[in-house]
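JOB MANIFEST
job_type = single_chain_structure
chain_count = 1
residues = 127
[input]
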Amino acid sequence: MQRFDDPMTRLDAEMSTAFPAAAPVAAGTGIHVTAATVARTRRRVDGELKGAISHLKLLVRTVDVAAPGFGVIGDLIVGSAYEAIQDHAHRLLGDAEEAVDGWTAALGVAQRNWQAAEAHSIIREQS
């Protein structure tokens, strides 16, 4: 097991493991999408991506600098700016969670539409 002294280094390592970069795909290689791939993508977005964003949102609040962390004068100058940045990051990550919820809902609709299209594209023998 690796030891990470820096939380951001640990997070980078976790994210690169969870979301490996996809290799580019040449056109005409026979790759196609199915309802099952849409469902799998939806589960990964809702589970892994939303989980990572929620985890980051929680981490934002764990990096508080209690007084007199910046010093008496430093707290007057830097303390409020630091808290404002923290609040801004928390709001942005909350917005990201809402966006992921929207993606999950849209992928659910896409999955149902894809299943309907697959069902209607099956050639049936008439007797």
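[summary]
Helices lie at 7-18, 35-62, 72-120.
The first helix runs from residue 7 to 18.
exit_status = 0
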